[in-house]
Amino acid sequence: MKRYERLARIRRMDPEKEASEIYRLTSAYEFPWDFTRALELALYRTYAVPSIGRLLARTAELTDRTQKRYDDTALLLDAIVEHGFDGEEGRTAIRRINQMHGSYDISNDDMRYVLCTFVVMPKRWIEAYGWRRLSRHEIVASTVHYRILGRHMGIKDIPETYEEFEACLDAYEEAHFGWDEGARRVSDATLDLMASWYPRPLAPLLRASTLALLDEPLLQAFRYEPPSAATRALVRRAVRARGRLVRLMPPRRSPHFARQNWEIKGYPDGYRVAELGTCPVPGVRGCPVSRAPRVE
Fold first, then answer.
1. Spatial contact of 55 and 186, defined as CB atoms under 8 Å apart
2. Which residue numbers delimit the ER-bound oxygenase mpaB/mpaB'/Rubber oxygenase catalytic domain (predicted)?
């Protein structure tokens, strides 16, 4: 297989009717590492919305059980990508997502914003650091894939096009990004988790490198000291260099799903999708996704 052969195949597909298959090819074959990093950043930036960061701090899932929460989120989203919306594992993952969110009073606006990050951040990351840019087919397919996920989750007023998702994300961040003490604890715990994946002496360097990849609104919301211009330039050039190196490598012949990422540490003996995540809190309702169409 030649380096751009899979892209040529994607361009022959229908980005509306075959959206999830295109998304699977893009995320599991063409850009598995980039999608992992971009979706990490997508979820991370949602903490800067105080209503989201405060809730995550209150549940303690991302401060006391950070690795498990990271693993469960990645594995649940991964099951949908790998098995599709109609596959048994994909449907089970959607049920678990809805059960968990249904335990809390989360606004539709916050849910829609989180969905926007899943659409927008991979494109932005790959434009900055990927070995090639996403094609229009891939952008449309990703948008359709997450529109379908949003409908399964009962989210209302979902944007239609990528451009509408991007405008929604930018407007929401401009209006809502801000300081919250609990959100800062969640952010610190997440940065500590990422550093823990590597030898301890590297922790300060890894934290500085991660901060160098964050934009100014995020740094300001969490009140982090901005990295120096030299640090930021060095880190970003290094990640771009990785993309140029990948371009020279042979194309991937087998898929790499998130469950194969070495950062997933919590299930050395395997897992069942139906048992991932947190258990619903009895008697606490109110999240709009709790009224989502039931997936049987």
1. no
2. 43-241
